[in-house]
């Protein structure tokens, strides 16, 4: 059992670079992870999620909607509405 088992993480830009490294680490430690990506990067996000192997079942990729990209910084409500409840 990882030290983040039963925790949920939200990462923006999680399909590449530093965001991808963070998603890999969080999933590797047992967290459920939602990562947000620009709709134009849907293929890249899907490929990244598929490449997580066993961790893919604990990870969800979520395209950013216009309302999410325009929400004020730190707005938990907009992230929750875009991702839905954890399953």
How does this model look, in words?
The chain is α/β, with parallel strands linked by helices and 87 residues long. The chain has one domain: NAD(P)-binding Rossmann-like Domain (Rossmann fold), CATH 3.40.50. The chain has 4 helices and 3 strands, in the order βαβαβαα. Strands 1-2-3 form a 3-stranded parallel sheet, sandwiched between helices. Helix 1 links the parallel strand 1 and strand 2. The radius of gyration is 12 Å and the shape is globular. About 16% of the residues have low confidence.
Number of helices: 4
CATH superfamily: NAD(P)-binding Rossmann-like Domain
Rg from alpha-carbon coordinates: 12 Å
Q: Mind summarizing the main beta sheet?
A: 3 strands, parallel
Separation of termini?
18 Å
- What fraction, in percent, of the residue positions are helical? 25-40%
Q: Please state how the strands of the largest beta sheet are arranged side by side.
A: 1-2-3
What is the CATH domain class?
Answer: Alpha Beta
CATH topology: Rossmann fold
* Total domain count: 1
Unreliable runs: 68-72, 74-82
Gross CATH architecture: 3-Layer(aba) Sandwich
Strand content: 15-25%
How would you summarize what this structure contains?
This protein is α/β, with parallel strands linked by helices. It contains four helices and three strands, in the order βαβαβαα.
């Amino acid at each position: 059992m990882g030290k983040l088992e039963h925790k949920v993480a939200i990462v923006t830009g999680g399909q590449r670079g530093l965001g991808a490294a963070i998603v890999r680490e969080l999933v590797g430690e047992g967290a459920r992870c939602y990562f947000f990506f620009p709709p134009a990067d849907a293929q890249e996000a899907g490929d990244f999620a598929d490449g997580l192997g066993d961790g893919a079942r604990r990870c969800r990729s979520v395209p950013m909607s216009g309302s999410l990209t325009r929400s004020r910084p730190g707005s938990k409500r907009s992230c929750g509405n875009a991702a839905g409840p954890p399953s």
